Amino acid sequence: MDGRLERARELYERAVFGGDVAGLEAADRELDGVEADLALARGRVLHARFVDGQGGREGQGGEGQGAEELRLFERAVELYRLVGDVRGEGEALFWVGIFHQVVRGDEAPAAAAFGRAQELATQAGDKLTLSYVLRHLGIAEHMAGRLPEARERLEESVRLRGELGFMAGVAANLVGLTYIAVAEGRREDAAAMLDEAAELAKAEGAAAVVGWVEEARGRL
User: Fold this and answer.
1) pTM of the predicted structure, to 2 decimals
2) Cα–Cα distance for residue pair 136/138, rounded to 1 Å
3) Is the same domain home to 27 and 93?
4) What is the C-alpha separation between 38 and 2, in angstroms, rounded?
5) N or C terminus: fewer CB in 10 A for the chain?
6) Are 90 and 134 contained in the same domain?
7) Quick check: 43 and 73 in contact, CB under 8 A?
């Protein structure tokens, strides 16, 4: 059992059998944290289904697409903020940004969510979430034609993921950097990065990233 659920149960028993109702607010906070985790997890599952149905393409959803996904992510943000979980709030805000960028193709609210997520992830020392935020800020910069800024954000994301040993994520970012290198006329660098990405992705069993590598090779 999740430790928070166990603590909520103990606080309930103290209130009902011991007459100590002072702990019920603490029980609520424990349960709010559990609910936040569940909302975030369910939202991610819905997002994975969306991406699978779209063949991985971004920005294909209409205005009403994914309403439940957004509701779950926003609920997670609300609950993490309520219980004072800075790391959780930052992660949930990142997913709000992902929703707007990937599902709705709407960069303005995505940028706002990513910006706040970056602040909170930095504050919490959450390098993994920060690496994701930087990746998607880099994607936004690339889409806007700001190649140096895009490269800087993706390279920083690569650095963070390397520190964490998240090599499948490094490979994914190298694919993104390949497209930037091609746009900048650095085709030899692009080819070398694809070779590295392929090697990392295969070693990690990241079949989807291997597919991204092959798609990128076809465009070189």
Assistant:
1) 0.90
2) 5
3) yes
4) 12
5) N
6) no
7) yes
From the number of C-beta atoms within 10 Å of its C-beta (0-12, 13-18, 19+), residue 162 rates as: middle
CB-based contact 220:188 (threshold 8 Å):
no
Q: Are residues 130 and 113 in the same domain?
A: no
155, 80: one domain? no
Cα separation, 8 vs 11, in Å, equals: 5
**What is the Cα–Cα distance from 29 to 128, expressed in whole angstroms?**
25
pLDDT tens-digit map of 148-204:
999 999 999 999 999 999 999 999 999 999 999 999 999 999 999 999 999 999 999
Q: Are residues 95 and 14 in the same domain?
A: yes
pLDDT digits (tens, 9 = 90+) for 86-143: 999 999 999 999 999 999 999 999 999 999 999 999 999 999 999 999 999 999 999 9
- Domain membership flag for residue 44: yes
Evaluate whether residue 56 is within a structural domain.
no
Query: In sequence order, which residues have a C-beta less than 8 Å from that of residue 6 and are 6 or more positions away?
Result: none
What's the domain range around 180? 126-220
Whether residues 166 and 186 fall in one domain: yes
Q: Do 71 and 173 fall within a single domain?
A: no
Q: Are 133 and 91 in contact (CB under 8 A)?
A: no
161 touches 122 (CB < 8 A) = no
Domain boundary among 73, 95, 118: 118
Q: Domain tally for the chain?
A: 2
Whether the CB-CB separation of 167 and 204 falls below 8 Å is answered with: yes
The alpha carbons of the chain give a radius of gyration, in whole angstroms, of: 20
Confidence check: pLDDT of 56 > 50: no
